[in-house]
Structure formats: structure tokens, C-alpha cells
Amino acid sequence: MTTTSSVNGDYAIGTTPKHKAVARRVAYYKNTLNVKLGTPAIRNVMDMNAFFGGFAAALASDSVWAMNVVPAWKPLTLGVIYDRGLIGVYHDWCEPFSKYPRTYDLVHVAGIESLIKLPSSSKSRCNLVDLMVEIDWMLRPEGTVVIRDSPEVIDKVAHIAHAVRWTATINDKEPKSHGREIILVATKIFWQLTSASR
């Protein structure tokens, strides 16, 4: 039995409404939210909740290196990601992620709270603050984070983003998108000593 045989559904690039929705999402990030996808500012991308690798597949025309991370307790879809010609790993987001040899210009997270919650439970396995600090460590200075989740979760994320000195904006989701989610787009500030403290 192959790894992909246990995954139901069509996952060929660009053939389903879900893939078209992800392509619309990426276009919205570029054109409306001014995320610098497709420019030299973004070379290394991580999708922290990759599932079938749709976000990375939608970036196929951009000159980026994309790491797909499938949370270890979610459906085992890494074989599908490999079948699509993409790269990825399984990872438990309550543990540190290896940052050697690279940091990321863009980190994308759809459903950040699902990365720390126990499956079919409302209890958290770890702390949202710890996960946000981990994202901060993975993100290069002046890198961008795009986080999609419910308004309640994004409110918590925005407070933490401010605490780690990210500049953040909260935005509506793209047209034709379903659900209650909203989008936080944040940039990690390049910290410098002031001239008085040098």
C-alpha cells in the first residue's frame, strides 16, 4: 500500500474547486494585502499547516522554495505532497522546529489554533505564545507572516504579535471564501540599537 492510498480525494494541481480557491487566496494576498509573493523579497516560504500542499502548489509560478509542514497528529498527507513534486515534513508544533540551515521570508498558517489543540478536544497541548515565539525564530528580519483563523483567535494572535514587535494588520478574507476566518498579516521588525545606546 502506498502512502497516498489512504488519502481520499482528488489532489491533482488546479483541478478542483479547493485548488482554485487556494489560487484565489494567493492572488488576494499578492494584489490586495500586498504580500510580496513573486518578488525577490520572498524566496523561502513555509506553510505550517500544509495538508495537501495546495498553498505551495499555488506558488508554482513564483520563484520560491516552499517547505510544507504537515502537523504530526493530522491526516498523513505527506505522500500526496511528494506525489505533487513538492517537499515537506511531519512536525509536532508543540516542539521546536529545526531552523538550520535557513530562516523563512514568509510563514503561512491557516488555522493556527488547530496546531496546538488536541484532536476532537478544546484543550490545548501547548501554549499559543510559545508557538508564536517559534514562528518569530523561524522568520527572518523583515519577513512576513500570514495567519488565517477565527476573529477570536486572531485577536489573541494580534496581541502576541505586538509583544514580539511585529507590525500587524487585520484584514477581511478574500471574496468567495467561506467561514468566519479573518487574516492577520504581520512583518517582523529589523531591530537596531538606537544611536544613543551605541
List the keywords.
198 residues, 7-stranded mixed beta sheet, 5 helices, 7 strands
Write up what this structure looks like:
This protein has helices at 17-31, 54-58, 78-83, 128-138, 151-163, and strands spanning 44-47, 65-71, 87-91, 104-110, 139-149, 166-171, 182-188. 25% of the residues lie in helices and 24% in strands. With 198 residues, it is an alpha/beta fold. It is built from five helices and seven strands. The termini are far apart. The protein has a seven-stranded mixed β-sheet. The relative contact order is 0.14. Helix 2 (54-58) links the parallel strand 1 and strand 2.
Entry summary:
This protein is an alpha/beta fold and 198 residues long. It has helices at residues 17-31, 54-58, 78-83, 128-138, 151-163, and strands at 44-47, 65-71, 87-91, 104-110, 139-149, 166-171, 182-188. α3 links the parallel β2 (65-71) and β3 (87-91).
The total strand number stands at 7
Give the overall shape, derived from the CA principal axes.
globular
Structural class: alpha/beta
Indicate the mean pLDDT. 88
Low-confidence stretches: 1-12
Number of helices: 5
Strand neighbour order, sheet with most strands: 3-2-1-4-5-7-6
User: Hey, roughly how much beta strand do the residues contain?
Assistant: 15-25%
Global Rg: 17 Å
Q: What percent of the residues sit in helical stretches (DSSP H or I)?
A: 25-40%
Largest sheet: 7 strands, mixed
Distance between the termini: 62 Å
Encode the helix/strand succession as letters. HEHEHEEHEHEE
